[in-house]
Structures are given as C-alpha cells and as structure tokens.
Amino acid sequence: MCDQVFKLNNGKTIPAIGLGSWKSKPSEVYDAVITAIKSGYRHIDTAFVYGNEKEVGQAIKDCGVPRSELFITTKLWNTSHRPELVKPAFETSLANLQLDYLDLYLMHWPVSFQPSDVKQPRDADGHILLDDTDFTVTYAAMEELVGERLGSVGVSNFSIENFEKLSKTQKIPPAVNQIEVHPFLPQFELVKYCQDHNVLVTAYSPLGSSDSPLMKDQIIIEIAKKNNATPAQILISWGIKRGYAVIPKSVTPSRIISNLHHVKLDDQDLTTINKLIEGKEPHRLGDPYYSWQVDVFGLHKNDL
Ligand SMILES: NC(=O)c1ccc[n+]([C@@H]2O[C@H](COP(=O)([O-])OP(=O)(O)OC[C@H]3O[C@@H](n4cnc5c(N)ncnc54)[C@H](OP(=O)(O)O)[C@@H]3O)[C@@H](O)[C@H]2O)c1
C-alpha cells in the first residue's frame, strides 16, 4: 500500500500513485482495477475516450473498498467542448462509472472538435473537424460542475501559454495538469511553472508507455540494482521525488502490484536521472499535431 498523497490547491488530497488505463481493453481493465485496489491503489485514472469507463466503474463497485477511500479521475473529450455539452458529458461519464460523484474531472486536451458520436470526426479528406469553442469557455462550464458531484476540476496537456490565457477567466484554478513526463521528457520548465502556481502535476506515460526504451536504459537499470528495485519502480519514484502524482498503466497483475512500491531515491539518483536527457532531444511520445494538425505544445510554429 502506498500511503503517500499530495495536497491539491483546494485542500483535498490525491494519492501519489494511481493506476492508468489508456489502452487497457474493456476485457482486461476490470481485472486490472480489482487487482490494483485489492493491492492498495486508491487512485484510478480513466477517460471517456478510453472506452472503458463502464468496466472501470463495475470494478470500483465490486472491489469491496468504500467509495470514500478512492480517488477517481475521468476526462472530458474534445467532441464535448461546447459549453452546453459539458454537463451531459460529465453525466454520461458518471453513469458509465456508476458513481454519484467524481474526485477529479479534467479537460483532456485544450482542443475542441465538432460535436459527434465518433471520437475523432473527420471530413472526406480525413482532416479532423475542429470547432471554434475556446477552451476558456469549456473550462468555465466545467467549473460549474464543482460541488456535490465533483471534487476538483483540472486540465491536461496544458502548456504555460494556455495557463496564462486561462488565468484571465478562471474562477477556480485548475487543481491538476496531467501531462506526459518521464526522464526523456522531464518537462523541467512546465513542472516548475505548475509547482509555482500551485497546480499539481500528474505524470502520464511515466514509464515511457508501451515498448519503452527507458526500461532498458543502462543508467536506470543500474539505479534500480542499487536500490533493489525494478526500473519501473525507479521511474515512478523519480516522479514522486520531484513532487507530483504518477499514473503507471498495467494490466499485468505482478506489474500492477510492484508498481505501487516506490523507493526513496537519494539526491544523487535524482540528479543522475535528471541528466539522462542532457545532450539529447526531448522525446515526446504523444503529439496530436500529426493526426489533428493542431500545435498543442507550440512545437511546430515554423511548419504551420
Ligand atoms: N491525459 C492524457 O492525454 C494521457 C495520455 C496518455 C496517458 N494518460 C494516462 O496515463 C496512463 C499511463 O500512461 P501510458 O499508459 O501511456 O504509459 P505507461 O504507464 O508509461 O506505460 C504503460 C506500459 O508499460 C507496461 N508496464 C507497466 N508496468 C510495467 C513494469 N513494471 N515493467 C515493465 N513494463 C510495464 C505496460 O504493459 P502491461 O499493461 O502489458 O503490463 C504498458 O505497455 C495512461 O494509462 C492513462 O491513464 C493520459
């Protein structure tokens, strides 16, 4: 059991390690969530777009641990950004999850698609159908949900630029920014910005996602040996040592269980891992620019 929690800017707490569920098939995710909760996880991360909220919810219902002890996050998808669609989308997720309330509702991306039953609506040429709803308007509708049925509101895949823009209209500061972070994309500047502005980072793809080269990195392997831990435990511990929540995904029982046991890295290990990226280009696993032609992270200003 990992008892460590981080405090959010509204006084609530979030368990430091959560179970991720992207690409966890509906047939696998029920067992994964049951295994996780039985082995001590109290934080589960899902999203409408993962298509597995129903199975996650059934596992939460069947797990035998009171709802009040669990922290459940799901996310608003891009096709529901128009303000009038936000509450119905939230209600659909609650119904899928069979829950009366959510602990955290995140705007999945600062990108709005046209309303659609398909997750990525496209025209005949295959271009994504973008909508002109601004994310500040979507966020304002999300703020309205905070209360009995929603503990905290937050964002995901937000850059510093987006935070600066949102700060001009927000009534409730986002509690969380869920972003890709691992030693090949350490996000030093964005993590510091979030910490300075009291927004808790939650690291997605903390292990480097599927077929991760990080697990085979010689330095990570050496630090793992030194700490009598697995490479995955080192990657998770690095995030916690940096002061943010981490949501490794697995559907493999032995990995789910071992990922919960983080180690206390010393400062030398922290510095060594921080330096892994020195002299290399950051390696971002997920950039929707290539499929949506939207420059979410401001990395393609010269290409557009
Ligand atoms: N907000 C967003 O836009 C966003 C984007 C991406 C992800 N996320 C969230 O973040 C979660 C984590 O990210 P992720 O799924 O991309 O990647 P990840 O957690 O970094 O890596 C998952 C991969 O690592 C494997 N794995 C897990 N534990 C392991 C271990 N101890 N040893 C070796 N391999 C291990 C898993 O395989 P098995 O499952 O086969 O064990 C899976 O292939 C997601 O599931 C999702 O909840 C959010």
Automatic annotation (TrEMBL):
One of its GO terms (molecular function) is oxidoreductase activity, acting on the CH-OH group of donors, NAD or NADP as acceptor. The record marks 75 as: Lowers pKa of active site Tyr. InterPro entries: AKR (IPR020471), Aldo/ket_reductase_CS (IPR018170), NAD(P)_OxRdtase_dom_sf (IPR036812), NADP_OxRdtase_dom (IPR023210). PANTHER family: ALDO/KETO REDUCTASE (PTHR11732). This is NADP-dependent oxidoreductase domain-containing protein. Substrate binds at residue 108. The active site is at residue 50. Keywords: Oxidoreductase. Pfam families: Aldo_ket_red. Residues 17-277 form the NADP-dependent oxidoreductase domain.
